Write a sequence for this structure.
């Protein structure tokens, strides 16, 4: 992708700690890399964590679709490009491309971000309109991030604790922790014989260190799974995920 005005690009080498037994980038680390590119771009635009923290505000990911054409492998060098799109007062869309140094597109993604305060209340984006930036007519994925309208009933849940490594700098479970929980609900043999081709995730509520969670899933079509993550507290669904495998 040719660098365009309003986009942010960064280069990464896929390190050994980022890959699984097939020496391919794990979905969790893919998520981390995309998220970090968004964080870095927000800082460049003047609406990053340090700036928003003084107003008791932070960016929260609400939805994300990720299409994986080919997962990069150990020692591959990749370029991640991200850019914001036109917002609708409460939702800031942002797209991503991951490419090889030769321009092969590996991953395409689109996401929705919202601005929350410490109590979880959303705020309009108009106060920061001059900083948010918009790249017109450029799309990694043409359609907006998916709204997953139905979840999986919570039958026979096995609850696990939210652990130290799941918590981010806002003292909530990190966005990528939910991806880890879903990936870990599939056993090792499944991962060795299937490759993730598409993931859509909807964040419904925040999860904290004192919570316990359970992942329940059902196969809605061959290699197409709908997953719901429930909190043991009030048995509320906190996240909904669709994964498609090849």
């Amino acid at each position: 992708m040719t660098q365009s005005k309003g986009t942010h690009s960064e280069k990464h080498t896929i390190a050994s700690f980022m890959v699984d037994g097939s020496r391919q980038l794990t979905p969790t680390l893919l998520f981390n890399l995309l998220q970090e590119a968004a964080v870095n771009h927000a800082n460049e635009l003047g609406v990053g964590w340090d700036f928003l923290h003084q107003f008791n505000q932070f960016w929260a990911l609400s939805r994300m679709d990720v299409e994986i054409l080919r997962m990069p492998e150990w020692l591959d060098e990749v370029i991640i490009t991200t850019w914001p799109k036109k917002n609708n007062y409460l939702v800031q869309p942002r797209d991503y491309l991951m490419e090889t140094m030769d321009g092969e597109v590996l991953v395409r993604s689109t996401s929705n971000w919202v601005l929350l305060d410490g109590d979880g209340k959303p705020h309009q984006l108009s106060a920061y309109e001059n900083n948010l930036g918009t790249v017109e007519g450029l799309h990694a994925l043409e359609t907006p991030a998916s709204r997953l309208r139905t979840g999986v009933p919570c039958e026979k849940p096995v609850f696990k604790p939210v652990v130290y490594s799941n918590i981010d700098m806002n003292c909530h479970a990190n966005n990528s922790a939910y991806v880890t929980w879903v990936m870990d609900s599939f056993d090792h043999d499944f991962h060795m014989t299937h490759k993730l081709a598409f993931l859509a995730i909807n964040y419904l509520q925040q999860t904290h260190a004192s919570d316990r969670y359970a992942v329940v899933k059902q196969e809605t079509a061959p290699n197409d799974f709908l997953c719901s993550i429930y909190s043991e507290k009030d048995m509320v669904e906190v996240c909904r995920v669709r994964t498609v495998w090849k």
The chain has a mean pLDDT of 94. The CA atoms of residues 18 and 25 lie 6 Å apart. The first strand starts at residue 8 and ends at 13.
